[in-house]
Amino acid sequence: MRKAGVIGAGIAGIASAIRLAVKGYDVTVFEKNDYLGGKLTSFTQDGYRFDAGPSLFTLPEQVEALFKLAGQPTDEYFSYNRLPVITNYFFEDGTNIKAYAEKERFAQEVAEKNGESIQDVLHHLAKSAKLYEITEDVFLKKSLHKLSTYLNLNTVKSMFRLPELNVFTSMHDANKSQFKHDRTIQLFNRYATYNGSNPYEAPATLNIIPHLEFNLGAYLPKGGMHSITTSLVQLAEKLGVTFLKNAEVERIIQSNGKIKGIQANGHQYPFDIVVSNMDIVGTYRKLLPDNKPPEKLLSQPKSSSALIFYWGIKQTFPELDVHNIFFSKDYKAEFEHIFKHKLVCDDPTVYINITSKMEKADAPQGCENWFVMINVPNNENQDWDKIISTARENIKKKLSNILGSEIESLIETEAILDPRSIEARTSSSQGALYGNSSNNRFAAFLRHANYASKIKGLYFCGGSVHPGGGIPLCLLSAKIVGDMVPPASI
Ligand code: FAD
């Protein structure tokens, strides 16, 4: 039986393992940590359960596709609920806007609160759907690096529509020409942060993202985000995949341009193919030290990182939902701090995710599990301890003002994640959440391919390679790898 080794049990590594097992490979996944899931993990502290990383779930059909592929009933492993309110937005001037899942209701809310026309909001969401339609086939579901992709009729059709992608206009400029009120522009600009980018630099193509939430839906898995990991690990194990924890891969072994295996914890393991889910920068620098690295691709600017305070709050806030945003007053200055000065401003936009709103077991009765996050630059050895203590004070002050409750006295338990710990735990270059940023209009072409052109049998998946970061794209990277790998019987 042909053997496949997967380096890293992030969501893309797990999904790749499933796809290879379905293709008939004997698959072993090597994970350096003592837990699986990489960024998509969870922990419990003093009676509160927290999802440690991702909190927003879109495109659930990509998880379901793995169960279908394996011929297993999804609902025996995994289920989820659609959120009736996608995000609850709080502005510094006291305005509160609820992004209802029902888009007509959301458009009405924006019209009432910001004086926009309902038609303009709906038109923006329809345009977003169109962008998705153009990009889905060419940029997301196939390799951009294989000739066969361009010899396909759907690709050719999409290519003719590329001018509609608006790559030469920034997201902010596009939103400014669409909407009257700064609050509406700020609300739609925020979608650039969904892949760690800057709305004032990123191309308007990123206006594709609201489509995922408003037209296709935002969801919360039952049991929290972490159940995406646990259910897929369960499926993989059912298919015979072996997971080795505390198994750090030290080297990819090759000979005459062909994969031979890997070395982990001092042992050599032979494999016919290897898939690396380790960040592409570390894969080249640490595991392939004798190969010439593709410097241009590896040195692309990285996406933003995050600073997260996990707070057990001994009170409930009925005015909050699962996803809540407390916007900064000066959004442009906030992004200049992150991307230009590589620092954090004194009035950052604060995101709070509270899964216990839907998953009651995630917090003790009468309490809530707050995942409080701000966007921060990636790790360039800033004085993080100082940044964290200043940010903590600023966040508390902002939330206490808007919510009218003194927050410090409500915090029963606390844990912190910052760019240094994200980098150390998952080997993500500079602690970036999503690999490269999309601030450059050519970013899609500056991500590494899903295969190594000079080492036969070596493939790459995960947020640092094509098509990019975030759970849906990571799952698509695994699909692209799965489609490329020859069946085990060959
Ligand atoms: P990773 O999760 O990066 O995992 C890589 C794995 O490889 C790790 O387990 C690591 O330990 C292992 N590894 C690395 N090197 C080795 C080695 N040498 N040997 C063995 N194992 C190794 N996405 C969304 O879709 N929605 C969100 O709301 C969202 N919010 C986020 C919030 C935060 C705080 C973070 C951190 C991320 C967020 N993301 C979100 C992004 C999303 O989590 C990632 O894009 C995705 O989980 C990355 O998956 P991955 O497969 O690339 O691997």
Structural class: alpha/beta
Radius of gyration: 22 Å
CATH class of the domain at 3-44 and 56-80 and 223-300 and 437-484: Alpha Beta
Average pLDDT confidence is: 94
Q: CATH topology of the domain at 3-44 and 56-80 and 223-300 and 437-484, what is it called?
A: FAD/NAD(P)-binding domain
Bound molecules: flavin-adenine dinucleotide
Q: Can you describe this structure?
A:
The protein is an alpha/beta fold. Among the domains are: 3-44 and 56-80 and 223-300 and 437-484, FAD/NAD(P)-binding domain; 109-213, no CATH class. Helix content is 34%, strand content 20%. The chain contains 16 helices and 19 strands. The protein has a 7-stranded mixed β-sheet with strand order 7-6-15-16-17-14-18. It has a 5-stranded parallel β-sheet with strand order 9-2-1-13-19, with helices on one face. Flavin-adenine dinucleotide (FAD) binds next to helix 1, strand 14, helix 15 and helix 16.
Helix and strand topology:
Elements: E1 3-7, H1 11-22, E2 26-30, E3 42-45, E4 48-51, H2 61-69, E5 80-82, E6 85-90, E7 96-100, H3 103-114, H4 118-140, H5 147-150, H6 153-160, H7 171-178, H8 182-189, H9 209-216, E8 219-221, H10 226-238, E9 242-244, E10 249-255, E11 258-264, E12 267-270, E13 273-276, H11 280-287, H12 295-298, E14 305-313, E15 323-326, H13 331-340, E16 350-354, E17 368-376, H14 384-403, E18 411-417, H15 419-426, E19 458-460, H16 471-484
Parallel strand pairs: 1-2, 1-13, 2-9, 6-15, 13-19
Antiparallel strand pairs: 3-4, 5-8, 6-7, 10-11, 11-12, 14-17, 14-18, 15-16, 16-17
This protein binds flavin-adenine dinucleotide.
Flavin-adenine dinucleotide binds at residues 7-13, 30-33, 38-40, 53-56, 248-249, 277-278, 282, 306, 308, 422, 426-428, 433-434, 462-463, 469-471, 474.
